[in-house]
Amino acid sequence: MSFPVITATLAAFLIILQQGLMLSAGLHRAKAGVGVGLSDDPNLERKIRRHGNLAENSGILLIGLGLVEMYGAPFGAVVTFAIIFAVARVGHAIAFSSLTGSHGGDGSKLFVAMRAVGATGTALGGIGLGAYLAYLVL
Known about the structure:
mainly alpha
């Protein structure tokens, strides 16, 4: 069993993305003078959800990807799952860079499309990874 290099590479990318999203929410809190909660600020809410959604999804996916990689799955399969998740999470972060992407309403439909990319890629990639892991071990 070798070191899971692909999983570690994805983890490094996600750590940096996570910290950037955390700083965005934290700086907004400081500027708005909001220590806890949302204070009816939809921009703060979208930044908190952008950060939180990545945190909610990254851990379990990294564990699953690491297990698949350590099991000895083909390089291409591991890289494909990693790329799907990375693209999905960047899509979600882009979507939540605008109130149109997070709350709907008027504005560029690019943000709405990126939300669909983020949600669909995360869900289908995660389901696929889980099914593939189950296939490998059963």
